[in-house]
Recover the amino acids of this structure.
């Protein structure tokens, strides 16, 4: 290193000073980014969500509206895509530093309740900081676990079949309420024969769809703490799926994989795709055809197994400002202006105030509204199935292992076995 | 070879006869040295050594980040060895290391041999070949790679011209790993520069003498170049294999964060990441991390042991 033999005292002092400065700097930067209150009584809340750009633009508008109405509360936004959101959240929450208010979903409620992260909002409702009135179709229950109100729904959605309208018309097949799985697969066959494209993009890995199928047959994907079906059930589901992939009835998973993040339906690889109804808005922007919502096929011609799911807002149990967090959530789910801005981005608006304030004008939102009304009218809606802690990990495993089956890399029976073994670990985690 | 040529000069043992003032000066000099180093030392202790010790402890616990770690002894290791996905990740990683490392080094050496000759625009060529190493690790290159190797993209179309129709490498579990191998090979710049430096050190008179004895280019390469650059080759093999064991970014991006399809790009670190950050099994992930450390250490040890058989240092040549 240094060549000088005579190191002066000044040099040592300088070095010491530099070191102290560096460490001091590190110490000060180490504690940035937290929420808190400033001297003038202004409170800052961190608010985090996942979603695409349109959602972020809309949410930022609603934040501005809130800050105008509550000048003493400032909102600091944090947003990413779905995957990154939960990875980041997990780390933040374990470090005791999650956002004060955040978007949540039913698959995560028990998991984070078990870890003491979620604030029971009932007490805030009792204190008058948050209104639990006017939720449509009893959807408030989606945010409840063991008598606690852990999330407040912002919207309601349900599974649907999105179809390529042009393709269905050209093939001369019709998707009608109460159709059976056999009729659905027969329709896919007709599409394949007449149009030379696959009918479905790959239904076999969608946990929520398999849940509907199980519910149609008197079972469910989850019980309170376990899986609600057998290895044989799943083996059968995946055996049939693999046959349909092989025959081309279901699109080649190799191709579906490569068009991501675009969907196989909008890429024109198939004529239909199962998803949540509020997701259907993406297809129009992505693809070149016209898209519509069609009913879920049934086993008995009546019951679809459907229920209303929802995205919700939750608050951190350790937030320094539970009152303000509750006020913010209340504003976000009840204020009519917020409803107008958000539209059906996170599902059909959950409260009557917001639902009445927003009248869809474009075909997509109109379609989503008509679909949910039709489903509600058909009287098929059931209660939401439980999601034990670990449901999120199992959902990812179901998609991955389903993919292995369709790629011909794992035999259905082995795949079912693998899912059961991974689920066991996920429940224990 | 300059890298290892000079034997360390041992300072004469008995120098303590130096005056006390000198000793004080040296002590002061040391003190200054440590002071200058202290930010680094502090950083090392807090950001590297500390977490490493913590993770060694976690490797023997069940730890989901929220509840306190629970001591489980060697449970994580036994579960790990029985876990089919862990086995798959080891298989995928070994395949990657064994295929990517030699190919990358071969290309690096080949290009270095070409670039070692004097020609016009030499600097430009060297810069151009080195460039991918600088940007290769970036996420954007991963995306570009995904686009290149997808269905109906340029690679697929080119293949079809030659009658090879696989429909894109990215979605195909049998091919996707090789797109990562290709990405690794493409970044051959760093080992190439090291090879170049090594080639420059080979004394020209050896070639001249060999030429006079009638040795052809192949023979000269085999009997002069290769033995003379073997220390550099050893260094590159070591470094590149260690790098290959740690591959993560490209696998994560090219496979759309899923390390798939069908776990085909489930490299070791990708699985480790999934276990730690997606499934919150930090104990298991730590056990995986330490197993990787041990495995890489073993591979390094084997390579060091093997160098006696094929690496020629100049002292030995004398």
């Amino acid at each position: 290193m240094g060549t000088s033999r005579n190191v002066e005292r000044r040099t040592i002092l300088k070095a010491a000073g530099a070191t102290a400065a560096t460490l001091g700097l590190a110490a000060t930067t180490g504690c940035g980014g937290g929420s808190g209150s400033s001297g003038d009584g202004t409170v800052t809340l961190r608010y985090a969500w996942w979603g695409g750009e349109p959602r972020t633009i809309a949410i930022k508008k609603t934040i501005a509206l809130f800050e105008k109405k509550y000048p003493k509360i400032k909102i600091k936004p944090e947003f990413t895509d779905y995957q990154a959101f939960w990875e980041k959240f997990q780390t933040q929450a374990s470090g005791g530093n999650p956002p004060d208010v955040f978007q949540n979903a039913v698959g995560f409620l028990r998991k984070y309740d078990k870890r003491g992260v979620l604030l029971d909002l009932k007490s805030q409702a009792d204190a008058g900081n948050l209104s639990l009135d006017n939720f449509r179709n009893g959807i408030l229950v989606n945010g409840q676990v063991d008598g606690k109100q852990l999330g407040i729904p912002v919207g309601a959605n349900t599974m649907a079949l999105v179809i390529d309208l042009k393709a269905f018309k050209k093939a001369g097949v019709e998707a009608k309420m109460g159709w059976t799985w056999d009729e659905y697969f027969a329709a896919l066959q007709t599409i394949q024969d007449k149009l030379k494209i696959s009918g479905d993009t790959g239904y076999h890995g969608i946990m929520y769809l398999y849940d509907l199928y199980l519910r149609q047959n008197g079972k469910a994907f989850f019980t309170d703490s376990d899986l609600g079906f057998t290895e044989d059930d799943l083996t059968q589901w995946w055996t049939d799926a693999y046959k349909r992939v092989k025959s081309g009835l279901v699109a080649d998973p190799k191709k579906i994989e490569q068009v991501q993040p675009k969907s196989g339906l909008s890429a024109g690889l198939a004529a239909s795709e199962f998803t949540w109804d509020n997701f259907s808005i993406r297809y129009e922007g992505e693809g070149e055809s016209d898209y519509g919502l069609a009913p879920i096929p049934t086993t008995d011609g009546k019951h679809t197994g459907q229920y209303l799911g929802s995205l919700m807002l939750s608050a951190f149990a350790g937030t320094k400002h539970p009152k303000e967090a509750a006020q913010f959530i209340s504003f976000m789910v009840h204020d009519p202006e917020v409803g107008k801005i958000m539209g059906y981005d996170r599902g059909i608006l959950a409260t009557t105030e917001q639902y009445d304030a927003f009248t869809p004008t474009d075909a997509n939102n109109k379609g989503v509204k008509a679909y949910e009304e039709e489903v509600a009218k058909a009287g098929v809606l059931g209660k939401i199935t439980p999601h034990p802690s670990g449901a999120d990990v199992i959902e990812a495993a179901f998609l991955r292992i389903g993919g292995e089956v369709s790629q011909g890399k794992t035999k259905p029976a082995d795949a079912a076995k693998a899912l059961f073994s991974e689920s066991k670990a996920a429940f224990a985690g | 070879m300059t890298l290892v040529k000079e034997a360390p000069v041992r300072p004469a043992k008995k120098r303590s006869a130096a005056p006390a003032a000198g000793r004080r000066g040296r002590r002061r000099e040391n003190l200054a040295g440590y002071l200058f180093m202290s930010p680094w030392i502090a950083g090392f202790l807090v950001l590297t050594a500390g977490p490493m010790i913590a993770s060694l402890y976690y490797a023997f616990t069940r730890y989901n980040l929220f509840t306190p770690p629970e001591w489980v002894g060697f449970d994580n290791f036994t579960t790990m060895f029985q876990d089919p996905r862990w086995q798959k990740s080891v298989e995928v990683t070994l395949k990657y290391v064994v295929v990517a490392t030699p190919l990358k080094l071969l290309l690096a050496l080949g290009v270095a041999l070409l670039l070692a000759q004097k020609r016009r625009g030499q600097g430009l060529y060297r810069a151009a070949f080195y460039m991918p190493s600088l940007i290769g690790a970036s996420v954007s290159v991963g995306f570009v790679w995904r686009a290149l190797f997808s269905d109906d993209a340029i690679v697929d179309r080119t293949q079809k011209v030659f009658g090879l129709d696989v429909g894109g490498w990215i979605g195909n579990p049998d091919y996707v790993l090789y797109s990562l191998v290709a990405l690794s090979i493409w970044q051959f710049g760093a080992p190439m520069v090291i090879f170049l430096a090594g080639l420059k050190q080979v004394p020209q008179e050896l070639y001249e003498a060999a030429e006079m004895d009638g040795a052809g280019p192949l023979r000269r390469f085999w009997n002069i170049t290769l033995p003379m650059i073997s220390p550099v080759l050893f260094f590159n093999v070591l470094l590149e294999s260690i790098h290959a064991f740690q591959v993560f970014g490209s696998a994560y991006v090219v496979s759309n964060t899923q390390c798939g399809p069908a776990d085909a790009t489930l490299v070791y670190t990708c699985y480790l990441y999934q276990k730690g950050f997606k499934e919150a099994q930090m104990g298991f992930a730590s056990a995986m991390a330490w197993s990787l450390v041990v495995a890489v250490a073993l591979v390094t040890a084997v390579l060091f042991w093997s160098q006696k058989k094929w690496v020629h240092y100049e002292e030995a040549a004398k």
